[in-house]
Write a structure and sequence with these properties.
Strands 5-4-1-8-9-10-11-12-13-14 form a 10-stranded mixed β-sheet, sandwiched between helices. A 4-stranded mixed β-sheet has the order 3-2-6-7. Helices cover 37% and strands 24% of the residues. It is globular and about 55 Å long. Strand 12 and strand 13 form a beta hairpin. The protein is α/β, with parallel strands linked by helices and 314 residues long. Belongs to the carbohydrate kinase PfkB family. It comes from Undibacter mobilis. GO terms for molecular function: 6-phosphofructokinase activity; ATP binding. This is Phosphofructokinase.
Length: 314
């Protein structure tokens, strides 16, 4: 039985290319494309597996792209439970402009899923043999899937005795928090949008997290702050990780790597403090790699001793 199960209701195959310059009208000659399995929960699974975790990924897959997605995950050694979809699995496209160092990210919407198709993913969760330690629901919600889908995942995960983790935004995040969830991992913009508050200081961020915790809606908030580091807030503690001094190559997948590292470490029985250190190292390692590469174990281990965490007293 896996320690970690991820659910990705809007998976993708991510395509990455280099191009000299992005310009209108004219043909832009690109490098050979690199293709990676993608979608929030799938990326979390990839990171947790790279760090040594026992992971299973649940997701819908359809068409030729869906078959490619399964093949790419098989190639990485990820145990996956793919449910059939009548629509083609989506693709995302990222172009790195070599002359400027800028990235251009084109995120395609998922196609509409039938009720039976998204319910099939829930059914696969409910019929798992054994009990995982964590169930992670991450990513966006495609058309046809109700905004309370992650709430339904939470309810089924509780029946398995698993801790629940959600990383999403908008109404899907609101529904998950209303249901009650163990861990959420918003970024600063997502938390600000949810609370309707301008979160312009550590104190304001911690206060916003504590409102959710004190209302018994969330147990832990892992808040990523981009270039300003990250916060980990529980009922009794607030930890701040300083941004690491590294060369940023690509920001794609940093949040998923952060969450994959956090969940893997917690599933290993590490303390909140130590798990937070792993998360920061994993998120930082991801930005050192081009395209959609995510973090690698060797880089996480190299960065881990350099992570600086301080307790915030408020």
């Amino acid at each position: 039985m896996p320690d970690i199960v991820t659910i990705t209701i809007n998976p993708a195959v991510d395509i990455f290319v280099d191009v000299e310059r992005v310009e209108p009208i004219r043909k832009m000659r690109c490098s050979a494309p690199k293709r990676d399995p993608g979608g929030g929960g799938i990326n979390v699974a990839r990171v947790a597996y790279r760090l040594g975790g026992d992971v299973t990924a649940i997701y819908p897959a359809g068409g030729a792209i869906g078959k490619l997605l399964q093949k790419l995950l098989d190639r990485e050694g990820i145990v996956s439970i793919a449910t059939p979809s009548h629509v083609e699995t989506r693709e995302n496209f990222t172009a790195f402009e070599t002359t400027s160092g800028d990235q251009f990210r084109f995120v395609l919407p998922g196609s509409t899923l039938h009720r039976a198709e998204w319910e099939a993913c829930l059914d696969k969760l409910t019929t798992l043999q054994g009990k995982p330690s964590f169930v992670v629901a991450s990513g966006s919600i495609p058309p046809g899937v109700p905004e309370d889908f992650f709430s339904r995942v939470i309810r089924e995960a509780r029946k398995l005795g698993a801790r629940t983790v959600v990383d999403t935004s908008g109404d899907a995040l609101k529904e998950a928090i209303a249901e009650g969830v163990d861990i959420i991992k918003p970024n600063l913009n997502e938390l600000s949008e949810f609370t309707g508050e301008k979160l312009d200081s550590d104190a304001a961020c911690v206060a916003a997290c504590r409102k959710l915790i004190d209302a018994d809606r969330v147990t832990m908030v892992a808040l990523t702050l981009g270039g300003d580091g990250a916060l980990l807030v529980t009922k009794d503690r607030a930890l701040k990780a300083q941004p690491m001094k590294i060369d940023v190559v690509s920001a794609v997948g940093a949040g998923d790597s952060f969450l994959g590292g956090l969940v893997w470490a917690l599933a290993q029985g590490q303390s909140e403090h130590d798990a937070f250190r792993v998360a920061v190292a994993a998120g930082s390692a991801a930005v050192m790699n081009p395209g959609t590469e995510l973090c690698r174990e060797v880089e996480v281990k190299q960065l881990l001793p350099k992570v600086k965490i301080a307790e915030i007293s408020l």
